[in-house]
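Table S4 entry, Acyl dehydratase.
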Amino acid sequence: MSGGEHETPTGERIVQRGLWFEEFVVGTTYEHRPGRTITEADNVLFTTQTMNTQALHLDAAYAAGTEFGERLVNSMFTLSTVVGLSVAQLTQGTIVANLGFSEIRFPKPLFHGDTLYAETLVTEKRESKSRPTEGIVTLEHTGRNQHGDVVAVAVRRTLVQKRPGEPS
């Protein structure tokens, strides 16, 4: 070898990606790991960046006097993180667009120091009528804290690429 050249091992190269439309199976639940421990800094940064001045997220003295006794993690941060935890496993590089969210709920609060885990159930899929190289997949995302308590649920419809070269 001359200077600057490097030997490369032979074999297949694999790039992390999400699932193609054909790989989604209705009824399958994906557990997304690792989880994400939520810090005070995460919550305050997200809350202030999004101009959400709710005292329950920012004012420790105020929150101490509520039924929760402490500040709550912003529910939009919780939702964003639950969806984010699913990306590498399900949609990295294969999603075309989010089509919408529905049935969003937050049954229990999330607090600073809690660890958020996510799982996704594939509830429906169909080929796109107007885009022959894509399909619509409906996902139900669930976020749980370290105790297994459900802290967020959301149904999301996504437009996903079909495997390249697959017949329509």
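The longest strand covers residues 115-127.
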